[in-house]
From TrEMBL:
InterPro entries, sorted: Ion_tolerance_CutA, N-reg_PII-like_a/b, N-reg_PII/ATP_PRibTrfase_C
Superkingdom to which the source organism belongs: Bacteria
Name assigned to this protein: Divalent-cation tolerance protein CutA
Family assignment from sequence similarity: Belongs to the CutA family.
Source organism: Actinomadura alba
A Pfam cross-reference name: CutA1
Length: 113
């Protein structure tokens, strides 16, 4: 990733799972913030058929450096066989917000280096 900050999205089939993923990522400091959006209506191909489902989206605000670990947390804790994990680069943002985002995704371990 060339950008310093990213928004990572995933979708789940329940608000509870979305909230659990959001809280886990923030607790582990893999995201400074996670927002739940939903329910949303999704239409997609799955196993040769067009499917429709009600889902919840989670938008994680994080640094590009945290992406791989955040993707791992999502994959390990997600109920889908193939969860959506998409990182969108943040090309601009307020300096104060991006500074806060960096501070919140710094672990105590990082601070001792």
């Amino acid at each position: 990733m060339t950008e310093a900050y990213v928004q990572v999205t995933t979708t789940t089939d329940s608000r509870q799972e979305a909230a659990t993923l959001a809280k886990s990522a923030v607790r582990e400091r893999l995201a400074a913030c996670a927002q739940l959006v939903g329910p949303i209506a999704s239409t997609y191909w799955w196993e040769g058929e067009i499917e429709s489902a009600e889902e919840w989206m989670v938008v994680f605000k994080t640094t590009a450096d945290q992406f791989e670990e955040l993707a791992g947390l999502i994959t390990e804790n997600h109920s889908y066989d193939t969860p959506e994990i998409i990182a969108t680069p943040v090309v601009a943002g307020s300096a104060d917000y991006l500074g806060w985002l960096s501070e919140q995704t710094t672990t105590a371990e990082d601070e001792s280096d």
